[in-house]
């Protein structure tokens, strides 16, 4: 046979993952964390990506990490704040998901967003369409897919930029920080005599 099935080349199992498969030489991901945002309809493919990232040394957080009995939004907010980079996996379902868009916005606003698309014909929503997006179109888990290397370069750049920012940030003295409390006074009507 020609090794073709239905017009697509049949690919055997991917070789064992190696550190050099995704991350360029000289980059140590072992102290780096990544938040992965995706649509649940893409979970099977995202699980393959998560395993590749973990084997490469990344600490990976995704919605499956929420502790039983805990509030989703609080744990998600904490994980987003701690992540060195936020990978959003865009798909037809992800672009319409309020959760994915919200998580992507958090990464975008912190300049930690690293987007990847499973379909190159997607119309990625504003403002995320301003960022170059790696393509994993047609990916089925093969670690030799060129989109993985592109994703890895983006993750490395964001994590290194984040690491430099942490190193350059001056140490803060919590005692000298300005604190402000804003309290609503709903009972203060206009024209009423009100005493504080």
In short:
The protein is of the alpha/beta class and 196 residues long. The protein has 5 helices and 7 strands.
What does this protein structure show overall?
- The chain is an alpha/beta fold and 196 residues long.
- The protein is 32% helix and 13% strand.
- The strands form two sheets. It has a five-stranded parallel sheet, sandwiched between helices.
- The longest helix is centred in the C-terminal third of the chain and has 23 residues, at 146-168.
- The chain is globular.
- 28% of the residues are buried.
Provide keyphrases for this structure.
196 residues, alpha/beta, two-stranded antiparallel ribbon, 7 strands
> What's the overall average pLDDT, rounded?
74
Strand and helix order: EEHEHEHEHEEH
Radius of gyration, rounded? Answer: 21 Å
Q: What proportion of the residues is helical, as a percent range?
A: 25-40%
Class by SSE composition: alpha/beta
Number of helices: 5
């Amino acid at each position: 046979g020609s090794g073709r099935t239905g017009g697509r080349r049949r690919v055997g199992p991917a070789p064992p993952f190696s550190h050099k498969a995704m991350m360029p030489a000289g980059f140590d991901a072992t102290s780096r964390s990544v938040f992965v945002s995706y649509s649940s309809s893409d979970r099977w493919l995202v699980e393959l990506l998560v395993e590749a990232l973990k084997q490469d040394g990344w600490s990976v957080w995704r919605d499956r990490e929420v502790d039983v009995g805990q509030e989703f939004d609080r744990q998600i907010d904490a994980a987003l704040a701690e992540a060195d980079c936020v990978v959003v996996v865009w798909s037809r379902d992800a672009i319409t998901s309020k959760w994915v868009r919200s998580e992507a916005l958090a990464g975008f606003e912190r300049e930690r967003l690293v987007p990847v698309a499973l379909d190159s014909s997607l119309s990625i929503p504003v403002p995320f369409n301003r960022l170059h997006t790696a393509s994993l179109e047609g990916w089925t888990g093969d670690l030799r897919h060129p989109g993985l290397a592109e994703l890895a370069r983006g993750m490395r750049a964001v994590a290194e930029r984040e690491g430099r920012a942490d190193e350059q940030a001056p140490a803060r003295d919590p005692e000298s920080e300005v604190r402000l409390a804003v309290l609503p006074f709903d009972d203060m009507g206009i024209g009423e005599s009100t005493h504080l």
